[in-house]
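Course assignment 3, question 2. Fill in each field.
Student: A.L.
Task: Predict the tertiary structure for the chain below.
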Amino acid sequence: MAGRAAGLDHQERPVQAADRRLPVHPAADALRRQHRDRPVRLRFLRVGHAPALAGVVDPALAGTQLGGREGVGDGPRRLGRRSGDLHAHGRPSEEDRLMAILAGKLRTTADDQDQPIDRDHRLVPEPGQDQDQDHDQDRSARADQPTIGQRLACAEAQVADADFVAALQTLTELAAAELPSSSSGDFQRFILLLARVLRALSRYDAARDVLQLARHSTLTASRAAAEEAEIAWIQHDYDRGAEAATYALRANLANRKAEIALRRCRQPITPSLADAPTGGVGHVAFYVSEGGNFGDVALPVSVRESIEHVAGQTDWLPIHAHQVFDEARLELVNGQRSLIIGGGGLFLPDTSPNGNSGWQWNVPAELLNRIEVPISVFAVGFNLFTGQRFRGDLFTRNLLALTERAQLIGLRNHGSMAAVRAMLPERLHERVRFVPCPTTITEHIHPGLPPARSGTGVVLLNAAFDRAERRFGDGYAAFLEQIHRFAQRVRAAGAELRLAAHLPADEKLADDLDSSYGVRLPIDPLYDRTLDQGYAIYRAASVVVGMRGHATMIPFGLGTPVLSIVSHPKLRFFCEDIGRPDWAFDADDPRLGSLLADRVIDILGTEDAYRADIARLQLGLKEHIDAAARDAAVLPGPQDVSRASAGSPPGVAVRRPTAG
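Answer field:
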């Protein structure tokens, strides 16, 4: 379609010839060839009142729909609308200011379009002007200012530390001082990072609008569309999410994030109101997709098995913790007899962060307070790494509101209990109880397990690499050397050493041992196995040495001897809770290899004694889990309902179970 016929008018925007690496419109390319030795202007196209870069978006496509979505050029116009809407809805001033800056700077005006840009994507005077003095002063002034790259690196570090409010402020200051040129890689880096921050603050519509600006780059189009699909899924907008995920996959068939989002949108975990049970148990959990972390696959199953072990068969209403808990979910939950949240390390600020609660359950306080059924937090962990913390007071406020409403805050270790109680008034401390992870008693609650196999000589090793900087600091090379020494000794003792991978990323340890020391480990990819197949692998081992929490708790619950490599406090907490602190070994211990090898060799020689010890320890944990399960299930019947009502906070009505 012709530009005039489409209602497009041309405006100019200067671009330095150094940007020739970008695909450009033929007219702009001709201009560049004509003016090789001085800055030239690259034409912009306006779609309505929003510019789109002609060097990336062809004029014939600038006003078209992308996969049924708004055209790239519509992004700044939508940002303008969004910036005007934010203040009316009481959104934070930093976001309001940033969106206004983006809308204004991307909606170029005739005044600022007459200024060329230098090789650093900075405005410079027109050729022929007296430039030297002004240019020298400009360079001197900006020498004291952080560069675009430094500001972006600062915001990325703040995001890694889950300080999203500070990251938004940093990005706002960057945009106000010097928005990266849309032809630079820093612009796409800025846009994707900004969208991530807005999403983490639950500014979902604003994040989607920003992601539209990344659609014009072939390098980031698939990634941006996958992010849009995830946000749509979080908001239960499944049609839009499937559409964006499909677009992302067409641009990059290997985009696993888009593949997962598409599957989630096509097969939502929560049933519709017409198909949902009534009088059952709502279950908020992290329901992982196919190929996800093996420990997270086991968790929801184990929680339900522990409840049904004492309450009998139960109708379950699954609710994904990472999706917004909205009016529709509230209505579904209030039709059940109780709500269970857990298990797993849900008290964590940087896994699927949100601005509604500050932890993994994405529940706004207003809707949390309207839940009418008894609430039980079940076997959840305060899952922060050493040195990590919750920023601001959002989590503390939500935790207080949750504890006021809940009949039970069941935490999986005493370390988590101490941390949570420290955030609560003393009057609520008694609601915080020890509820071990039910994976630790799998032998007692999971039917159909294969017989335990003692004496196989199989040693399973697990490592974790998420948040590697927190796990290893700068000591990974030393850790790898210790694991090499461990492998040499264990193999020399006649054991079969294998790697148990809960995620594909765990296989890095095998790759690094091979490349650095020529040691090859067979791999058991548990992430690619069914739950029962994974259980069978752990059940057949003589000992498991795990770095992930559930690479210790799951085999323990299956009766297999375990040792823990501690790169997160939860592993030491578990070993202390069962009275076996000597089963925990620090990842940065310079004697790690020899200490682990000594203990593994000891276990191989006395395996049956270790298994008998674990059987006794399981029974002690089972008492706590069974008691919490009876409370959480809120068994149908007058006696149980009265008990649930008596345990509820004053002034909070408890909905009686309905028939069925």
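Instructor remarks: Residues 104 and 653 are 50 Å apart (CA to CA). The chain has a mean pLDDT of 81.
Grade: pending
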